[in-house]
Amino acid sequence: MGEEEHLSNSPNPDTEITENPSQQEYSWPAIRFDVPPQRTSHFSRQFRTASNPNNFLKGVKWSPDGSCFLTSSEDNTLRSFALPASANEYVNGFSIAADAAADSYAASLVMNEGESVYDFCWYPYMSASDPITCVFASTARDHPIHLWDASSGQLRCTYRAYDAMDEITAAFSIAFNPSGTKIFAGYNKLVRIFDLHRPGRDFEQHSTLQGNKEGQTGIMSAMAFSPTHNGMLAIGSYSKTTAIYREDNMELLYVLHGHEGGITHVQFSKDGNYLYTGGRKDPYIFCWDIRKSVDVVYKLYRSSEHTNQRILFDIEPLGRHLCTGGQDGFVHIYDLQTGQWVSSFQAALDTVNGFSFHPFLPMATSSSGHRRFLAPDDGNDELHLSGDENCASVWSFSVASMVENDVEIDADDHNNSQNLLQNP
């Protein structure tokens, strides 16, 4: 395809600057985290093949409109799973113990990258009702950044960066800016910015090191924008630091130190005042107040001190709680007001490496698994994946009763809100 054709197929953020009207009118339910969630869907069989029996998941992210979620796995493949139109079709209709070998349903789309996937992210104004916006970006080893069509699984276009030898260099982390007009990509001591509507090899390049050699070193491994559109960008590095930049000119504001390992995930609070960072072989998620970034506000424990694996956490839509997995197979829930542990539930018999909340329903999805090595002379079959060690699951939470417009809404009414997915 030529670039002109790519351009015509790329999303037009000017038509999607406002959020989905259905989501604006919908009142987010208050999730009851004191009640364990129900597993409503389970996927494991389709991730294992004869050629790759020890395949494992590496992350999961729900789409901005809530119509589907995307998984990344060790077999260099991205899979999209569509949420059924009504949760009643499968709630309580699937028993893990009764049929652990079966999946709830097959992936809607399967996209193979060919090499190990470093990162992936959704277009911020993605809506199933507008096919032009149904895209997500991914980056893989020795590959350019790919923009995928989330409705067909076809490759829309590519964004290519070249090194000094004029060879393609892969981004280690990617993120759309809040307005959806650019893709920010992290490299070794570099950030490159691509115009979404200009595929190819045109980009802005910014060094994370300043003239006096101060700044942020290492591979830029994770990035996130403030959700309040205040122009702040957080970038984590494998040099164990997180830095805050201005989006418009990539001016370095300050650098945060303290993690024991390279940063693998960064996320802003819903009000944009706090930043949460997690690292590899580091048992704590740090909370920083970006208005006075001198000390850590508090630390949230998770079982991750013995793995280099990227473990993704997420904040629920109301912004009051954070959920994170770990090597113990549990999802731990913390109150962000106090930093105190609230509850936990077992999501898998393996490392829970990904957790993502539905954008407006009391649901979440998790991913689990980790790399295993089988000794040639051992023959120990226990090291192979079995049961729900390597799996993705969808969870349904109970909601607290609440009063909205003088009408009482009880915990059962959230099932009716599934109808929003039919007309997003």
UniProtKB/TrEMBL annotation:
This is Telomerase Cajal body protein 1. SUPFAM superfamilies: WD40 repeat-like. Pfam families: WD40. Residues 8-22 have a biased composition (Polar residues). InterPro entries: SWT21/TCAB1_mRNA_Telomere (IPR051150), WD40/YVTN_repeat-like_dom_sf (IPR015943), WD40_repeat_dom_sf (IPR036322), WD40_rpt (IPR001680). Gene3D superfamilies: YVTN repeat-like/Quinoprotein amine dehydrogenase. WD repeats lie at residues 256-298. Keywords: WD repeat. Residues 1-22 are annotated as: Disordered.
